[in-house]
Amino acid sequence: MLVETPPALTAEQFGRIADIVREDSGIILTEAKRGMLMARLNRRLRVLGLSGYGAYCTLLDGPDGRVERRNMLSAVTTNVTAFFREAHHFNTLTQQVLPPLIDIARKGGRVRLWSAACSSGEEPYSMAISVLEAFPEVARYDLLILATDIDPLMVEKAQAGVFSETSIQGLDPARLRTHFTRTGSSFEVRAPLRNMMRFAELNLHQEWPFSAGFDVIFCRNVVIYFDENARRRLWLRFADQLQADGHLFIGHSERLDGPASAAFRLAGPTHYISIARETGR
Predict the structure, then answer these.
(1) Is 149 marked active-site?
(2) What's phi and psi for 195, nearest 5 deg?
(3) How confident is the model at residue 276 (pLDDT cuts 50, 70, 90)?
(4) Identified catalytic residue from 149, 151, 215, 232
(5) DSSP E strands: which ranges in 101-153?
(6) pLDDT higher than 50, residue 1
(7) 44, 71 in Cβ contact below 8 A?
(8) Which residues contact 101 (CB under 8 A, 6 or more apart)?
(9) What structural domains does the chain harbor?
């Protein structure tokens, strides 16, 4: 039986693809990532019936390249997540952040939380569980969680709200019984969680189709893949999107830097609070 040899990815082709990925997403692919890129994109070549990366680069640069660029980003992006990952953030959310926001909601105010790189949904549903446990009557008030990701396949999976046994490992059994329904070997989130969620595909480096006004933003373990300029631009945009004294949670190996540092104060490990300024609330 003949084994098909995967097409080679030349340095020039790798450079072109890396440039496109950087332009479209801010993600930096170094030479050390060439093998990873080939492993992930060889399947795209098979699906498209292309014999090599020369033809693939031509497709990406051509009039029909926009759709394939989205598929390529889906293949390239890394989706590592878990329920209540970096648990100290959720402890802070429950103990410090939510109580004043719940008071605002009870008084008729608008409260918005954003999971800015939601992956397959474990993070925003963990946020929703935290909210529901602290605020059981949330359905009667104007509190919503926006969950977005650059990968449309991940957004679709998150919106479905169905998780495997592997995905829910480590989730407290009481929470599992309360917030999920078992369907065969899978677990489906229940309506009280779904009802406070809104999902959308969103590239953090492109235009955002909403106005300022978030009280909490989670964007964790994302900017480690960006170059310095892209990272610092994103911090500034988050500052513009947050309410006065809004909360930004970032990844354990990330630090807020650049001009946006003046717009935040450090409140805890990888937890920042926007400096109070005039807002519409």
Answers:
(1) yes
(2) -70, -20
(3) low
(4) 149
(5) 111-115, 143-149
(6) no
(7) yes
(8) 111, 143, 215, 216
(9) 11-76 (1.10.155.10), 87-274 (3.40.50.150)
Q: Please report, as a single letter, which amino acid is at residue 207.
A: E
pLDDT at position 4 is: 58
What are the start-end ranges of the E strands in 20-168?
111-115, 143-149, 162-164
- pTM passes above 0.85: yes
Q: Which amino acid is at 267?
A: A
Residues 22, 40, 44, 106: which is the catalytic one?
40
Looking at residue 27, the DSSP 8-state letter turns out to be B
Give yes or no for a contact between 74 and 149, defined as CB atoms under 8 angstroms apart: no
The answer to whether 40 is a known catalytic residue is yes
Q: Which range, 37-41, 73-77, 96-100, is most confident?
A: 96-100
Q: Please tell me the distance from the alpha carbon of residue 64 to that of residue 130, in angstroms, as a whole number.
A: 43
| Contact (CB, 8 A) for 161 and 121 | yes
pLDDT band at 277 (very low <50, low <70, confident <90, very high): low
With H, G, I as helix, E, B as strand and everything else as coil, classify residue 271. Answer: strand
Ramachandran region, residue 119 (left: φ > 0; alpha: ψ -120 to 50; beta: rest): left
Examine the pLDDT at 145 and tell me if it is beyond 70.
yes
Would you say 111 and 142 are in contact if contact means Cβ atoms under 8 Å apart? yes
Contact 37, 17 (CB under 8 A): yes
